[in-house]
Write a structure and sequence with these properties.
Helices cover 22% and strands 20% of the residues. The protein contains 6 helices and 10 strands, in the order H-E-H-E-E-E-E-E-E-E-H-H-H-H-E-E. The radius of gyration is 21 Å and the shape is elongated. It binds a DNA duplex (16 and 16 nucleotides) through residues 1-3, 32, 35-36, 61, 91-95, 110, 128-133, 173-175, 179, 182, 184, 191-192, 281-284, 301-302, 308.
DNA sequence: CTTTTCTCCTGTATGC
DNA sequence: TGCATACAGGAGAAAA
């Protein structure tokens, strides 16, 4: 499941293998992969053809290829402001992969999009088993962010990220703190795995109401989220090779030293208690029963009681 | 307006 | 062995 660190690994791969190249042709398997692009896949392909990829950028779990008409910045000659860029926006969803492959190979299973380049070199393919991910075209706003994801908050690694502002918004949230951490309009990049890890590190149960936690505690949770994602990114850089922009959320990164997520039945690394698994927001949550005691009253609402043994 | 639930999808694991 | 079911879950639409 690609969260911020995994998406960043992909972005780096794109920066290395795709930036600077001119798109010769884009092909899409059908409307679903381009469902966020309302004019449809044919229009999307038209918008990509002939454009030069000038950058690979990311906010949270979204990434995008910046598109311009030429590689050389027109403004370097000393004219006016640069023309606003456009972007091919990509979200990997749960199972999306961007793969750099040899040109003109046979379709990969679940391949939904393919970009070929004018240099005749490697191709970029979007492969997604569950097709929760997708691609869309977007203008880029004056802040450098595609306008279609203007509602996505800065992630903890951006200069625009303001932790104290996030804490203030958490302080008035009428919902469980884990639900808030997963809200990409509050802070982006955190998914189920790193939310559980951050809460474990902070020693806070995810179903506690956000507004009942102190500001220092909320700040600590956010700091832990950034730190655990940073550590994961350090480890994730390895599973990469020349022709393979790895997105393989499965094998490559599962060596991550997780303390809570997926650790049901194992000993808590801090206190030795047995890590438990509970259902929350119809998802699995993992926590330490001793380090992260449940709130007294049901905080998150919804179906919170674990139904699995 | 804020918050919660529902829906999309398919490979893998588990149960009877 | 075979078939049915649970599960993984990000994000936006829809509902409350």
């Amino acid at each position: 499941v690609p969260e911020l660190p995994e998406v960043e690994v992909v972005r780096r791969g794109l920066a290395e293998h795709v930036v600077g190249r001119r798109v010769e042709m884009a092909e899409f398997s059908g409307p679903r992969v381009a469902r966020r692009h309302l004019p449809g896949p044919v229009d999307l392909a038209d918008r990509l053809r002939g454009r030069v990829v000038t950058a690979a950028r990311r906010r949270g779990k979204y990434l995008w290829l910046e598109l311009r008409d030429q590689a050389e910045p027109a403004w370097s000659a000393g004219a006016a402001d640069p023309a606003p860029a456009e972007a091919l926006l990509v979200h990997l969803g749960m199972s999306g992969q961007l793969l750099v492959t040899a040109p003109d190979g046979p379709p990969i299973r679940h391949e939904h999009a393919r970009l070929s380049f004018a240099d005749g070199g490697t191709q970029l393919r979007f492969v997604d088993q569950r097709t929760f991910g997708g691609m869309a075209w977007s203008e880029v706003g004056p802040d450098g962010i595609p306008t279609t994801i203007a509602h996505i908050a800065p992630d903890p690694f951006e200069p625009a990220y303001d932790a104290s502002s996030v804490v203030r918004r958490l302080k008035v949230r009428e919902s469980a703190v884990k639900r808030a951490l997963l809200d990409q309009t509050l802070v982006s990049g955190i998914g189920n795995i790193y939310a559980d890890e951050a809460l474990w590190r902070a020693g806070v149960h995810g179903e506690r109401l956000a507004r009942t936690l102190t500001k220092p505690t909320l700040a600590r949770i956010l700091d832990h989220a950034r730190e655990v994602m940073s550590a994961a990114l350090d480890q994730g850089g390895t599973s990469f090779d020349a022709l393979y922009v790895n997105v393989n959320g499965q094998s490559g990164y599962f060596d991550r030293s997780l303390n809570a997520y997926g650790q049901e039945g194992r000993e808590c690394a801090r206190c030795g208690a047995t890590i438990r698994r509970e259902q929350f927001m119809n998802r699995s949550s993992f926590s330490c029963p001793r380090c992260q005691p449940r709130p007294r009253s049901a905080a998150g609402s919804g179906r919170t009681q674990g139904g699995r043994g």
